[in-house]
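Feature request, filed as a ticket because there's no other form

It would be nice if the structure record came with a short human-readable summary line next to the tokens. Right now we just get the raw output. Example of a typical job, pasted below so the devs can see what we mean:
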Amino acid sequence: MAAAPEVDRTESTREVLEAYWKTHDASYVAEDAVFTMMPTGEEIRGREAIARHLAGFYHGALDARAEHVSSIVSGAKGLLEANVVGTHTGDFAGIAATGRSVRVPLAVSYEVRDGLIRTARIYLMVNVLIEQLRAG
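Raw output as currently delivered:
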């Protein structure tokens, strides 16, 4: 007996998202994907722009990674709760590199279609990040 279509979709969505969460490999992102920074409304459009944005954040402004806390996947949607953990190594929001350690709450809501991430709505607690960069 074959699995129900919703179960199949949940499993394929889970595979895509878990692989992406481990690597941030842009090949899991659709060419026409849109990632939205919810605190500012900024939209990053397209696989290449998204890859550049993530590299600039995780390996430019910071030397950091997203530390997985929990996740839920159902059908074509997924939700990740994580902490951005690392060191402030470059300019962020006009604040020059401080070398300070950061730990910032993050939640991202994803939609997957045809085996690729189509949208992400990113809830990064920017206020917490800035507070940590200005501390001391």
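Something like this underneath would help us a lot:
The chain has one domain: 5-134.
Residues 5-23 form the longest helix (19 residues).
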